[in-house]
Give the backbone structure.
Amino acid sequence: MAVRVDRGPLLSMLLFIFIIFIFCQNSCDALTAPQFLKVPMDQIGVSGGVVSFVCQATGDPKPQVFWNKKGKKVNSQRIETIEFDEGAGAVLRIQPLRAPRDENAYECVAKNTEGEITKTSTLSIIREDLLPFGFPSIDMGPQLKVVERTRTATMLCAASGIPDPEISWFKDFLPVEPALSQGRIKQLRSGALQIERSEETDQGKYECVASNAQGVRYSSPANLYVRVRRVPPRFTILPSSHEIMPGGSVNITCVAVGSPMPYVKWMLNSEDLTPEDEMPVGRNVLELNGVRESANYTCVAMSSLGIIEAVAQVIVKSLPRAPGTPIVTETTPTSVTITWDSGNPDPVSYYIIQYRARSPDSKFETVDSITTTRYSIGGLYPNTEYEIRVSAVNTIGQGPPSNKVEARTGEQAPASPPRNIQARIISQNAVMVRWDEPEEPNGMIKGYRVYYTMDPSQPMSNWQIHNVQDSTITTIHSLVPSETYTIRVLAFTSVGDGPFSDPVHVKVRPGVPGQPGKFSVGKVTDTSVELTWDPAYSKEPVKVYELIYKSPDLGVQEKRNFEPRTAYVVEGLRANTEYTFSLAAVSNKGIGAFTNEISQRTAQASMCERDRIIQCVKPVLTENQWMLEVEHVCPVLSVCVTHRGLLWYPDSALERLEAAGAERPTSVFPSQSSLSERKREHN
Ligand SMILES: *[C@@H]1O[C@H](CO)[C@@H](O)[C@H](O)[C@H]1NC(C)=O
Ligand SMILES: *[C@@H]1O[C@H](CO)[C@@H](O)[C@H](O)[C@H]1NC(C)=O
């Protein structure tokens, strides 16, 4: 609202007065001189007893209240002034009362900048033995009492006198005012003081005061103690640890109790996460969102009685890190033991080992589900370089592999014998022996042992030994001329001896051919076996080869001689029969050593066309049965052969035999005519 001055000076003057008036409503008249709120009363006390004068004033500014005696401040050991209401109230307490010394007028003065007021009260004192009838007496005064905080305490008081005395209470020399306690403190009809929901401030020295027209009487004081239960903080819900996915959220609850109740806050390392002025009591929930890193959060509960802490681990899951480079702790010919450092602060479910032989085309082999940080990889090849690496697996997956470690397995004795042993006569009594390295040396070959004997039936320990280093050829001297020796060779590493080669034989006579080499079986049918070999070494030309073969089943031994060649097919053999073969070369100087025997079983005769009826006899016993001798009978004919020999067959079987294309029994009979006759009879 704009003020317009041009309406004239009178209007302006009225407006000014109005504004001043409005302004002074609030503050101009706020200053007031003191006025008594509580006016002290004249008192009649009993000698040796107590009296209190209570004086309280109000005003603005707040007045100061004090007590004077004859215009001077009271000052005595027995006369005490107890201030209250910030000095706007004062109790004058005299104890013990002395008559007549204390019988005076006492002035309560209330004073502020606006003025000063005084009220005078007089004190009379009566000796105990001169008390008038009806002077108040305390029949039962309050007793010392202990109350638990928040419980109800009752201070008892009973008094008598004529007229009935009024009872009031003092606490710590100040009047108790139930009216100001919002109903928490009551004075009961009996005079007792009842304090509900007691507080620590209720603790103090209580006096019950009985007064009537005759005078005033104080009870003995009684202390009320308010006991506060003191319980140091403790957690009722410990913060729990959590594993969460990257960027995840989690709420962590922490609850602590105690008396007094503790404050609860969260910290990350030394950083406060709960603002100091918003610290909740008892319970604090930490809300974490978008968590990227693992961290340890600390819940702190504190009261005047102590500080406690609990840590919640928040683990953000991620692929595990690569473990430390494995360390080889032990190697054997077939195993490598490694240990490694986890390299992961967070839990690892298990580890995976990958290893491979160090060669260009080898693939990694995997060992899964290892829960320790030490492992022996078994089933390895001896004397082989391996590379090994480890990776860790957790609930998210497999982490990157560690650096590789390289390890060589230990050596072992050779696993296979030297190959292609050859022996040649080089003089009357010397043989040169040569061979090839074993296929599986299993380490560094340190040398070879050549065993030889004239009597191969002797145990190996009785044979003679000739050791060879760094060579696959050697010469054995001092042999007995014209004798046949058997020779076997083995290889050894630093760890031990390998197996013996097959024996070779050599006849110590110059000019006699050596043993044919690589004597072995080629194509096999049901009636033939092909044999192959390398030509026998010989100074004199080989004239002929001699082959011996036999069948342990049949108990026969056959011999064949043929022109020099490197293959031969032995024919006319029986089907499904074991044969052994042995070959020697012959020169003008004589026959050389035979090879070792090799065994071969001829093939199964194929179906029915191979069934050969050797003898077919119409027996005299019955008209419709034939007696056959067969070599082999096709199973499809359901003709059971348990042994070779003469068997009885029904006619129907023979017919089926013929129908299946079996050779007719025409040529192998002891008597052609008798067969024909019999056949005719049959037909
Ligand atoms: C955490 O508590 C807040 C508030 O109560 C709620 O909105 C939120 O969904 C809770 N988060 C989790 C991960 O429980
Ligand atoms: C959390 O505390 C644990 C136990 O003391 C400790 O192993 C881990 O490394 C700590 N984690 C972080 C992220 O500090």
User: Anything to note?
Assistant: The CA atoms of residues 614 and 668 lie 6 Å apart. The chain is about 5% helix and 45% strand. Residues 1-8, 607-627, 629-650, 663-683 have pLDDT under 50 and may be disordered.
